[in-house]
Structures are given as structure tokens and as C-alpha cells.
């Protein structure tokens, strides 16, 4: 008698040309759709989150330490940056400590002007940041030894610059001062006085050769110049903006930096920030979007479970006579409930398996689908400018699969439990009389 509920559940599910078969198939399709969509969307979101983090780790400094008391450019307090660098470089958690100067410059090419953020650093053998940036080279050779500059391929394309071109690079601060000084010259001044005033207006500029371009989708839009040029542009003299640290455990950058600060290796007059803090808003936004997608897509599973409930209600009404006979023969209420809950479980199981297969199939052709949709609608559903990736990523987390499948089966079983419970409470005499 223990296998009777399962036997009857399978028997009731046998294909017949009836309305029950139709709604049973619809219920399976609902579960399949819910599971498939959840698997596809959650895998893409997990892949995007993972690739985005890896992309940031792959081109961003893991941590930056800089003097908190820095006022005007070049003014620092506390120990010299060279001493700080030496102490940090000896820490076991630190892979490399590299002095950098960062700021904004204005690049000129064929009378076109565009601003870009740049980092100036020395081309040293132990510069771990430089080594990982070289992995993103699209064209040319990453050299920061002479009057050179490295830009992203996107910025170079917008500027119309090619490898080997000489670009006129202006210090942004001097450009701002130039504009301010020009505005201070009275428009009604005599031409001679106006000319003398404009002759005193200068802009700090340098001719730099474009030696390499980096992939914007994996290395960002930042440019790179030699350290001595950046120090000149940003009026740092022999000082630096900070010291860039490459950590052996970048995933736990905040914990590592707190430990370094508590150990006294970093002076109190110096502060620190990590790549997680720098891009915390974006990382949190990705996580919030993923959570919101979980919440929204679970409604699909609720709809699928309601379809299963409707199927169970229809079956219990159609099988009212059989239920009465089983009850009259001594079948217990829990066994009647088990029949229809087992039926819902089989529907859910088949739907889950089909949904997993469909979800993984569409994941395998996700980029092909993206191209087809883009060519048909004229719109890119995964634009590189927003997501910073040239292709749709995917990473399936086993824990997500367990949650998806468990929720799908659990909701279907709960949905079938209520009508099954009412069916088991039917009086056998009333059931046989109504059926007759």
C-alpha cells in the first residue's frame, strides 16, 4: 500500500485526450519556463558580477595609499613617500609598491581636444600593475621610459590617433589657468596691451608618442604616462600622488589594508583606499540588481505553482468518484493527499529537468541570440559602454541551481497540498452519490 499513491499518481498522469492532460502539460511548461528563465538570468548576472570584479582586479590598483595632509599639489606632511614605499614593499601581504602620480590631462590631435584621466608611473621590473596592464594590450608595446603615452583603444579611436602618432598633451590645470587669464584680459583693451597680456599666458604642454592602446572593455578608459611627465603635469616636483599597492589577496583588499594600518606599517598621516571602495557603488548596484531579479523572477514560479494548483483542483474534481471508493475501502486521508501531491511532484520534477535543459541550451547560444536580436531590432541588449564587457558572460553557481530547483518543487508541492487536503476530507457516501 506504500507505493499505491505513487502508482495512482503516475496513472492519472498518463496522456489522454482530455482537458486534464492539456492543463497538466501547461503546468509542466509553466515550471519549465520559470526554471529556465531563472537559470539563464541568474547565470548571466553571476557571470557579469564575477567578470566585472575580475576586470577591476585586472587593471585597477588593488589599493592606493596617499598622504591625508596633502594640500596643494606636491605638499605633504609626515615621512617621505620613499620611506613609506620601502616599509610597505617589505610587507608579506604586498606584491609590489609603486609610486604613482594621477590626474587629468587634455590630449590634442588635429585641433581636437579631449580630457582623459591618466596615471604616471615608472617602468620598473617589479611593477606588478604594469605587468598586468600589459595583458590588455590591443596594439603596440607598453613602454613608459621616454616621452610616451598609452591610451585605451576607444579613446584613441575617438581622437583619431594611431600607434606612432605624436599627440600634444596639455596639463589640465594650466589649461584652466589659461582660460581664466584670457577672460581677465579686458575686451576693450588696446590691441598692443591685449597682445602683451596674452603673451604672458602659457600652457604646460608636451609632445608624447602613442606607443600602445589597451582594450577599453577589459582595461577601462584610463591612460598611462611616465612618472616624471605626470609629476611635471600635476606640479608635484619630486613628490607623488600616492603609492599603488598590488596585493597577494586582492579579493580581501579591505581586510588586508586594515591589518597593515593597525600594524603601524602605514603612518597615521597617510590614508588608504582599495579598488572595492573605489567601485563600491557599482559593485553594490550589481548585487542589488541581482537580488531584484531574484525577487521578480520568483513571481514566474508562483504563476507556475498556481497552474499546478489548478491542475490538482481539476483532477480532484474529475476523480471525485475514485476518491470516494478509495476512502470507502479504508484508504487514509494522508494517502489520498499523497496521490495528488505526488502527481504535482512529478509535474514539478519534469518541468525542472526540462527548464534546466532549456536554460543551459540558451546560455550556450546567448551571444548568438544577442547578435540576432541586435540585427533585428537595431539595439544592443548588452551594450559594452554600460556593462564594460564585449560578450555576455555566464557563470552558473551550483548553490543557485539548488535554490531554483528546490523553490520550484517546493512551491508546486505546497500548491497541490491545499486542494489535496480538501479532496481527502470528502465523505465517501457523498462523493459516490454526487458522482452517480
Could you give a short description of this structure?
The chain has 436 residues and is an alpha+beta fold.
Structure commentary:
With 436 residues, the protein is an alpha+beta fold. The protein folds into two domains: 4-54 and 282-435, no CATH class; 61-278, no CATH class. It has helices spanning 4-12, 19-59, 81-89, 128-133, 153-159, 172-184, 191-199, 216-219, 227-233, 253-263, 275-278, 280-318, 320-328, 333-364, 366-377, 384-387, 398-424, 428-435; strands spanning 63-67, 94-109, 112-121, 137-140, 148-152, 166-171, 205-214, 223-226, 242-247, 270-274. Strands 1, 2, 3, 4, 5, 6, 7, 8, 9 and 10 form a ten-stranded mixed beta sheet that branches. A hairpin with a 2-residue loop joins strand 2 and strand 3 (112-121). Helix 2 (19-59) runs antiparallel to helix 12 and helix 2 runs antiparallel to helix 17. The chain starts with a helix and ends with a helix.
Percentage beta strand: 15-25%
Q: How many E strands?
A: 10
**Count of individual helical segments:** 18
Largest sheet, in brief, is: 10 strands, mixed
What's the Cα radius of gyration? 34 Å
- How far is it from the N-terminal to the C-terminal residue, by CA? 27 Å
Uncertain runs are 70-76
Provide the structure class: alpha+beta
Number of domain modules:
2
Average predicted confidence as pLDDT? 79
